[in-house]
Amino acid sequence: MTTYATRTRPDFLTDYAPTRYRRRLTPFSRVPATGRIGEVWHLAARNHPGQRVIVDRAPDVVPEAPSQATFPAWAALVDDLAGRLYAMGVREWDRVAVVKRNHLDVALLASAAARIGAVPALISDNHAPDTLAVLLERLQRPYVVTDRRALAAMELGSVAVASLTERTACVDGVPAGRPDVLDFGALRGAPVPVRRLRAYDEPMVITHTSGTTGVPKLVLHSAATLYSLGLVEAERWPVFRLRKDDTVAFCQPYSHQRVVTGLLPLTTVGPTLLMLSDPQGPGLRELLVEHAPTLVETLPNAFLAWEDLARDPDRPFRRVRVFVNSFDAIHTRTIRTFLAATDRRFPVWVQAWSQTEAGAVAIRPYVRRSVRRRGHRPPPTQLLGWPVPGFGRLRAVDPATGEAVPPGAVGLIQFSAPGRCLAYVGERARHDRKREGDWWNLGDMAVVNRWGAVRLIDREVDRIPGASALEIEDVLLDRLPVTTEVIVLAVQDGLPQPVYSTRDDVPVEADRWRAATAGLPDLAEPFHIRWDEFPRTATWKVRRVELREQLLAGTSGIGLGKWT
């Protein structure tokens, strides 16, 4: 094992792209209490000592802990985890890869690592073994905190542990015959190390993109970049601002940058937090009914999977005043279903189109009136809204020439705002290819209209000439209420290929399908599969490339994929 004295800092922690920092949106803005994840729980404990954080199951790092506690208790757990990591050998600038079952404790481990000056790298536990090997190799011998399920599923055998990691520890005990793996629980009670937070402009945390088209990119952020992104959420917006008296139900993959950014305003304002780890967890319904959240945020496809829950007679969403979907476009049917599930007179849905590298790109609110028309083309949700005025800018360019296209024309979207990431770990050239000064290439095809609003067409890699897969999918979901997922795949030299699932796994009748597709572009005959047969990322996005390979072996898409 490498000794601390002989360790060198990898190039990606010293050589990265310049980016911009923003202190506040306006002179009167509410701002995050910090951008450093290493102190976020401790500041929340100081400022909101009596506020509760509730989880849907005990943390894997402390399985006997209660499912709810106040901020001071969670801060104390961060200190305990920092002591364990230090006892494991972690020091300043070391990378700590957290690869375990989804839970809030992933974020707690990140805070603990950052608190002692290390750089946490949060990695979902649903990757294939060869993908995980690539990610660990890019991190250049990280310390790894994992669990036995991930250790087996990702084939982290003794050879991989020895060649790819500095040391590896399991949070739920050591599997038989694995003396190379530490028992992370056995390190409890280690002395709390001295706090060593990274400077605001230094690399602080690594997360990864969804990986819909292959190996995910490892995205490097600093406290300054994440603080800048957190400004949008901390602001006191009319109607949908975050309030101290809110009960926030938050269900996300905790390995994602969205969670790190989200903790900044959540722990600044101090509402009651219901931090959920599994969109299909066994106790999910009961928790929502019991705690009756006022603000709900989760993934677009998790909302889609929750539509039946929204119709539950116990009305778990009865008190919700604001729904928030992050990451991607949401389906019109889903918004309509949830706005009908609350007893509030004027509930608001906030669609936030965002990217790991650049934060919230465009924001648009919806009310019940916005989504009353069914099967409309284009769907209202394709108009994703506007960048925050005075903070972000959008433009559309020709993918071949890079020249700006006129308003109303389809182009490749570029975004400029403070808070852009510092680098892609191990892929500097790929990161440089996507930036042009302050502009960042999002890899999406869209239209920017004369008023500055953006209408999303498709990811460039998934594009369909003369049509929009996102539009077709939304319309079919709205016209066919029995469907639980609809994906339209681009196929080189062939018609777009629809793939769908239904509530009871019963195919849609041929005449009903023909009626639903009337007026849409020509499509191939659909494939009907089960919902759980769609290959998904940790953010529940469908891996379209993998799905096409499964169903249409030997075919390819149309997009170049140059900007993914």
Question: Can you put this structure into words, describing what you see?
Answer:
The longest helix has 18 residues, at 71-88. The radius of gyration is 23 Å and the shape is globular. Among the domains are: 35-51 and 71-224, Rossmann fold (3-Layer(aba) Sandwich), CATH 3.40.50.12780; 393-460, Luciferase, Domain 3 (Luciferase, domain 3, Roll); 469-551, GMP Synthetase, Chain A, domain 3 (2-Layer Sandwich), CATH 3.30.300.30. By secondary structure, it is an alpha/beta fold. An eight-stranded mixed beta sheet has the order 2-1-11-10-12-13-14-15, with helices on both faces. The two termini are 36 Å apart.
Topology of helices and strands:
Blueprint: H1 40-47, E1 52-55, E2 68-70, H2 71-88, E3 95-99, H3 104-115, E4 119-122, H4 129-138, E5 143-146, H5 148-153, H6 158-164, E6 168-170, E7 181-183, E8 203-208, E9 218-222, H7 223-234, E10 247-251, H8 257-269, E11 272-276, H9 284-291, E12 295-298, H10 300-305, H11 307-310, E13 322-325, H12 332-339, E14 348-355, E15 359-366, E16 383-385, E17 393-397, E18 410-416, E19 423-424, H13 428-434, E20 435-436, E21 439-448, E22 454-459, H14 469-479, E23 483-489, E24 497-502, H15 510-516, E25 527-528, H16 544-551
Parallel strand pairs: 1-11, 3-4, 3-5, 5-6, 6-7, 10-11, 10-12, 12-13, 13-14, 24-25
Antiparallel strand pairs: 1-2, 8-9, 9-19, 14-15, 16-22, 17-18, 18-21, 20-21, 21-22, 23-24
Helix pairs in contact: 1-2, 1-8, 2-3, 7-8
